[in-house]
Specification:
Strands 1, 2, 3, 4 and 5 form a 5-stranded parallel sheet that branches. The chain is an alpha/beta fold. The chain has 2 domains: 3-146 and 242-261, Rossmann fold (3-Layer(aba) Sandwich); 148-232, no CATH class. It is built from 11 helices and 5 strands. Helix 3 (62-74) crosses helix 4.
C-alpha cells in the first residue's frame, strides 16, 4: 500500500524542492511512497522566539498557523478527507534562534496544544486528535536554514550558479554549525550587496548569494525559487549526511521519514535528541 507523506513548510524554496529531494533519496529504498506537494504556511522563527504565551494568545501567534495546518492535516475532522498517512511540519531554526532550539520546540508544542484545546470542544475528540498527532505528526528543524546543506554537496553550489569556490571553514566542522572564513566575503560589503546582513560569517544563504555574485551588483544572482531550487530538488542527501556525527537535525528528519516508510534509514547516524523519534511525545518526535 502506498504511504503518503505530506510536508508542511514555511519557505517557498522548501515548498518547491524539499519533497523532490526526499523522493530522490528514498527512490531506491523499495518503499511504495508518494510525497504529496508540500503545503506552505507562515514561519515563526524569522524573529527571536519569545516566552510562551497564555493559551488564548498562543492561538493567534505565528506558530499557531503552522500548528493549525499540522493538526488539520493529521485530523481533518468530520467531513474532511485524510490526505496523508504521515505529516511533517518543517521550519528553519534561523540564526536568531540558534542558541535556543529547545525553546523553539517547546513554543511549537505549546501552540499545538493551544490549537487542539481551543478547536475541539469535547475531551473524547481531543484524545483522538492527540493520538493522531502522536502517531502521524512530526515537527522538524533545518539548522540554521536549508541553504546550510548545499555546502555538503559541491555540485549543489554549481547548480546554484556559484561562480566562486567556497572558503567555508574547516571541512570537519558540522554543516549545522555553519561558519565562513573568507576574507573577501567578510570585507566591507557594497551598499547594493544582498548578502551584507550580519552576522555574515554564520549565514549560509548570504554566503550562497555572495558566491553567486561577489560584486554585489546583481541583485537576482541567487533566487531561492530558481538557483536555490536547482540546488535543492536533486540534493544528494547521502553526501550531505556522509559524516554520521553531523547534521543531526536534518538526519532526524530523514530517519523519521524512513521509519514512517518502514525502511532502513538511507543516512544512518546521530539524530538530534531534540527531534529524534521518541514514541511518547505530543508528536512522533517532540
Amino acid at each position: 500500500m502506498t504511504v503518503r507523506v505530506q510536508l508542511i513548510v514555511t519557505g517557498e524554496l522548501e515548498r518547491l524542492g524539499l519533497h523532490l529531494s526526499l523522493r530522490k533519496l528514498f527512490a531506491s529504498s523499495g518503499a511504495d511512497v508518494e510525497f504529496l506537494p508540500p503545503l506552505k504556511t507562515q514561519d515563526f522563527t524569522s524573529n527571536r522566539v519569545g516566552a510562551l504565551l497564555p493559551k488564548e494568545q498562543a492561538t493567534k501567534s505565528l506558530a499557531a498557523k503552522l500548528a493549525g495546518s499540522l493538526v488539520s492535516s493529521v485530523y481533518p475532522g468530520r467531513g474532511g478527507t485524510l490526505q496523508a498517512d504521515h505529516v511533517l511540519a518543517v521550519d528553519d531554526l534561523e540564526l536568531v534562534n540558534a542558541d535556543q532550539p529547545e525553546h523553539v520546540l517547546a513554543y511549537f508544542r505549546h501552540a499545538v496544544k493551544a490549537h487542539v484545546d481551543s478547536t475541539f470542544p469535547t475531551a473524547a475528540t481531543r484524545d483522538r486528535v492527540y493520538q493522531a498527532l502522536a502517531e502521524r505528526g512530526s515537527f522538524h528543524l533545518l539548522s540554521p536554514m536549508v541553504e546550510s546543506y548545499f555546502f555538503g554537496e559541491a555540485a549543489a553550489l554549481q547548480r546554484a550558479k556559484a561562480n566562486r569556490a567556497p572558503n567555508r571553514f574547516d571541512t570537519a566542522r558540522d554543516l549545522e554549525d555553519f561558519e565562513v572564513d573568507d576574507a573577501a566575503y567578510l570585507a566591507p560589503a557594497p551598499s547594493t550587496a544582498p548578502w551584507k546582513t550580519e552576522p555574515r560569517h554564520r549565514h549560509p544563504k548570504n554566503y550562497v548569494r555572495y558566491l553567486c555574485d561577489p560584486t554585489g551588483t546583481q541583485l537576482r544572482a541567487y533566487r531561492e525559487t530558481h538557483e536555490g531550487l536547482d540546488a535543492l530538488q536533486v540534493l544528494d542527501w547521502s553526501a550531505v549526511l556522509r559524516n554520521e556525527a553531523h547534521a543531526a537535525f536534518a538526519r532526524a528528519l530523514v530517519d523519521d521519514v524512513a521509519e514512517a516508510l518502514n525502511v532502513p534509514s538511507p543516512c544512518p547516524g546521530t539524530c538530534s535528541p531534540l527531534t529524534a523519534r521518541k514514541g511518547n511525545g505530543l508528536l512522533r518526535n517532540i
